[in-house]
Design a protein that fits this description.
single chain; about 60% helix; about 150 residues; mainly alpha; 5 helices; about 5% strand
Amino acid sequence: MLEHMLDRNRQALIDTVRGLSEADSRRRLVTSLTTPIGLIKHAAVAAERRWFQCILLGLDASECDGNAIPGDGSFVVTEGETLAEVIAEFERTSERSRRIAADFGLDDTRTHPLAGDVSLRFVYLLLIEDFARHAGHGDILREQITAAR
């Protein structure tokens, strides 16, 4: 059930950007670095890679299959990256997270430098909440973009 809910929220987040133009996906409508495309980038970089690859697998950020920086930098999308590429990156990273999680029990723990001992169950619940919240952000941004047309 936890895996299913996480997958639902991954898809909900992606659905907030599907069909947006490149320009609209990069529109900054709030004072933070949050943009529709940035939300997807953040989900891959700061959420999936940090929690599954760095925390669960114990990889150094430099050993991950892409950028794994936390914080505001995880929302940054380069000029050369397209919306389709960022979505594909998130989908690839999510698939790797599924494979990593398959080797853990829900109560297996690892140590997070700030949160202390965390289990796979904790990671699932945290990301379910995180992606649901970001899908809500994406819905609001998309509503603002569509209303402005």
